[in-house]
Model the fold of this input.
Amino acid sequence: MKPFKYWSRRLSMLLMLVIIVGCGISNKGEVTSKPHETNTEEVAKESTKGCPGTIEWIDFLMFNDVTYFQNNEGTKEVPAEQIGDRIGEVSYMINEHVCADHVTENGDAAYLPIGTVIYELKGYKSHYRVVANNKVYEAKENPHAKTMGDLMDIKGKVEKVSLESGNDGSPIGNFPQEAASEFMNELLPLRYVSFDEVYKKSKHETGIFLRVHLQDGTSFRMVYYPKANAFSAGAFGTEKLQLLIVSQRKEIKAAAGL
Done:
């Protein structure tokens, strides 16, 4: 079994978990009752008893059909003045309660305890970013989004776009401001198709690591696959975007002596 899987509503399909398979373990665990019906430690142990190996979840939550990953870039703890209205709460913590074939539901979270309050993050629409346990959670899949702009509420909020090393993620250089603006103008209207569709065409390709820096000091990484002309966030690019990214990568690497 490969150590990484890719995203769909079934958690075993995205980089949402790492499964380390134990020797001689091949049977799947079965949950005989719906996980949301109880949260006792005894049932939790029974639920994961037959799981194939050890499961390590990425820190995520699902709310209003949107799957959010914790954004661990920039500010680690959200200041009180940036926390908005209460919009919901966690109804189930899946860590140590389910196997990798669990299908996520609204209210599920990897590590947040039941009852953890979900808040709006001031300055962003809640379908893009929310706050829980003083941490920012950022949308990674939204079935209601039609465009990249629908998925990511970042129009007018971008400070710069940079290129990172595909080896260790270290920064290499920034797009010129004009190129960064052109990049965003082309990116946000793209049709959102989800990561699954992108993965079908890019799974054997090495990507270009880009980082989008926002004005609030946070940032997020996007992987661009030039042959597939696709973004890991879930969209296929235009010819103009392809030319822009490839040419900027060449110029930035040359300026850095790479």
